[in-house]
Amino acid sequence: MAHALRTKRTLIYVFCGILTLLSILPFWILLCNATRSVEQIRQGLSLIPSDSLVHNWHVLMNQGFNVWQGMGNSFFIAACSTILSVYFSAMGAYAFTAYNFKGKKILFGMMIGLIMIPPQISMIGFYQFMMRLNLLNNYIPLILPAIAAPNTVFFLVEYMETVYQPDYADAARLEGASEITIFHKIMLPIMKPGLATMGIFAFVASWNNFLMPLILINDQAKYTLPMLVQLLTANIYRTEFGAMYLGIGLTVIPLIIIYLLLSRYIIGGVTAGGLKE
Q1: pTM (2 d.p.)
Q2: Four-CA torsion 253, 258, 264, 267, nearest 10 degrees
Q3: Distance (Å, rounded) from C-alpha 35 to C-alpha 55?
Q4: Is the pLDDT of residue 267 over 60?
Q5: What's the whole-number mean pLDDT along residues 205-212?
Q6: Is the dihedral of CA 229, 234, 236, 237 positive or negative?
Q7: Residue 88 above 50 pLDDT?
Q8: Cβ–Cβ < 8 Å for 139, 77
Q9: How far apart are CA 242 and CA 244, in angstroms?
Q10: Please, which residues have CB within 8 angstroms of residue 147's CB and are 6 or more apart in sequence?
Q11: Is the pLDDT of residue 240 over 80?
């Protein structure tokens, strides 16, 4: 029996190790190609870094790739949209979980229906609407719509149903706490792992968003990092693949940092911080 358990455990470790390597491999190839020249990249795949990193960086800078400006623009949009998405989605999820009101099931069903609608369908109408509001070449259309995030609300509703305890709110009401105080002081700490999870997804989605900023933004000083990467293909005589890989690698690094910062909340206790003595 013990031998069988050890064998199963070993197989699980091996399987997890293989999955880990498969997950890391694309990032490692990206980093290796960022250090290789165009000729080396054309020769085929290599898992060994080369010595062309400085050359690729100079090419990147000479092609109008203002990495710090693009990173600042992308971070501002992603951070603002993530905060709005997570906060208002948490508020909506708490309302769906804690309160019983007329039309609740209908509203929840409509929200689930919105998840099934591809965002590309509304792009033309959204562009025309923003044009009429004179909001083109502006970050507002990229940030403000994050308030309505039905997929985030749906996830947090499902999460709240597993951790919500009506006694917490009832005890706070007996102490004279208002509903908004209960939400901020009790419910948000309880939802922290779920908020961190959806925060990562929302930040990554906003950071990698390319099509909508490309449609709305035409001032190069306001370009996001993914928009700047596509400028690297403008040279019709020679495509600097090494510089392109370096630019793509720079867009990935902030996402890894955000994940490392928020992952501790995901693996933390589900109800940690829910009640304070």
Answers
A1: 0.80
A2: -90
A3: 9
A4: no
A5: 88
A6: negative
A7: yes
A8: yes
A9: 5
A10: 84, 85, 88
A11: no
Alpha carbon distance 209, 75 (integer Å): 12
| Cβ-based burial of 222 (10 A; exposed 0-12, middle 13-18, buried ≥19) | middle
Three-class DSSP labels, 196-216? HHHHHHHHHHHHCCCHHHHHH
The first and second tokens of residue 243, run together, are 């510089």
User: Rounded distance, CA 263 to CA 119, Å?
Assistant: 28
Q: pLDDT at position 235, please? A: 55
Distance linking the first and last C-alpha atoms of the chain: 46
Domain 52-266 class in CATH:
mainly alpha
At residue 87, the pLDDT reads: 93
| C-alpha span between 52 and 69 (Å, rounded) | 24
What are the structure tokens assigned to 229, written together?
Answer: 């990467």
User: Alpha helices, DSSP H only, in the chain?
Assistant: 2-34, 38-43, 53-62, 67-98, 104-115, 123-132, 140-143, 150-163, 166-174, 179-182, 188-190, 192-207, 211-216, 225-230, 241-266
Mean pLDDT, rounded, of the chain: 83
How many whole angstroms separate alpha carbon 232 and alpha carbon 243? 8
What span, in angstroms and rounded, lies between the C-alpha atoms of 244 and 264?
Answer: 32
Q: In this predicted structure, what is the pLDDT of residue 271?
A: 41
The b/e string for 46-63 (b: 16+ C-beta within 10 A; e otherwise) is eeeebebeebbbebbeeb
In this prediction, residue 263 carries a pLDDT of: 72
Please say if the pLDDT value at position 249 is more than 90: no
pLDDT in the model for residue 9: 85
pLDDT at 47 over 90: no
